[in-house]
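Encode chain A's predicted structure.
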Amino acid sequence: MGRTRRALAPNNQEQRRWRAGLYIRLSREDGGSESYSVSNQRALLLEFVEAHAAELVAQEIYVDDGHTGTDSMRPAFLRLLAHVREGRVDCVVVKDLSRLSRNYYEAGYYLEQLFVALNVRFISLSDPALDSFRDPAGAQSILVAVTNVFNDAYAQQTSAKIRAILDMKRRKGEFIGAFPPYGYRKDAADKHRLQVDEEAAWVVRAIFDWFLAGKSKNAIARQLNELGIPCPSAYKRQQGMKYHNPSDRDGSPKFWQPSTVSRILQNPCYAGHMVQGRYRMKSYKVHTQVRTREEEWFVVPNTHVPIIDAAVFARAQELGRRDTRVSSDGDTLYPLSGFVRCADCGKAMSRTKCRERYVYYTCRTYKDQSRTACTRHSISEADLFGAVLAAINVQLAKLDMAHVREAVAACRSAAHMDSLSARSLHANRRQLAQKQTFQTMLWEDWKQGHISQAEYSRMHAQYEQEVERLQSAIAAAERATAVREAEEGPWEQVLQTGQFMHLTRELVAALIGCVYVQEGGGIRIQVRFSRPSAG
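Encoded structure for chain A:
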């Protein structure tokens, strides 16, 4: 009698329904192929899940649009991995292996270690077709390893080609950044060319003016914040740009920082020169930016309309390199800070305050290093200021009134500040009126029952906070206007008398090169202007 074959018990594991995470990735390395488009990948994956509805249910679709496969920090992919570890997803479905990763090491780690350890099913629809549950050996085959190697090599070759194209554009002076520098916008007809954005360019000019006038970078940042002027990152977002600053870790309001002011003051772009390639990625796999050597930068002069005059920009760079000290109020630099040097050793002089009011300068070598290396070279600040002011007025007396006006114009910077304060004042007053109108409408919505008490309280608090900020900004702009109007008197006096009455940082920065103090109190002054030669 033949043996009767007993029916096998159903495999419970095969009857389970897998919670599938559908992962989609697209980047420029895919060359714009329609087969790799997000819509095409989505359609293919959903069609596959529907065809296997008995065992698969789409838990979530994860999309990384614009992310290279060598990037291990893709947002949607990281979310997918988190859900895998939490047990919310136990099956990962992709179009092909290159969607998962183009990094040979990482792809091997996911397929051979992580997914195996967490009992996660992996399905690739093509190149090659894999199913780690139906065919575990196939998912671990040499073909998979070879495919991952080719995907990695493809990313490396693509990266090298893209870098070569971008370097060619950099050498030609074409702008290749995603976002233009603050104060510029991309030309609508040619995205590789920059045009001046006057709405922000006034702020850039004011920053340079304030810096040359003696304001510290901290004071400039504080002044811009008080005027209610959006910082560069906030301004870009207001203009509709999808800009994200890596340092922005929360949703709190962003303000001007001294470091932001410093970067603007040092950027040659504002003088009309294109400087690119200051940073590069460590490799096509490690997407960490590192600073390059200056000789590796791509510098192309005169590629676009400058916001800052070349002479003003050069003066700002010179001032930035000087050894300076900030006044006790923290807002301004001392008038001669960075300009006074020992006539013998050439070191900067040290400013010292004694007995509350008496201030004097001494040689830093003598004070800090060795009293045998140099002598004291002591001089009081009052005598030094008087001598420098007298030297400026002596030179000024040699000029005719036309050149006096030029000297005064080199020192004063009220025009840009006028525009900046006027613009911010007008904008803030308009926003204040709008917010106050919204407050009234909000109250009416609450009274009529359109919103709840909780919604009214939350929104009212937000409006109150914004109103207070705008009122503070308006008051700051009005104070700045009053101070500037009060400062106009001395300039008019100079034009009438041909004499400067007070030594200011702005005056020194515009007209003085350096002041050398000799032993015994004598001084030698280098001035930036002198009487024009005949003819």
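The chain has three domains: 18-158, 191-321, 340-527.
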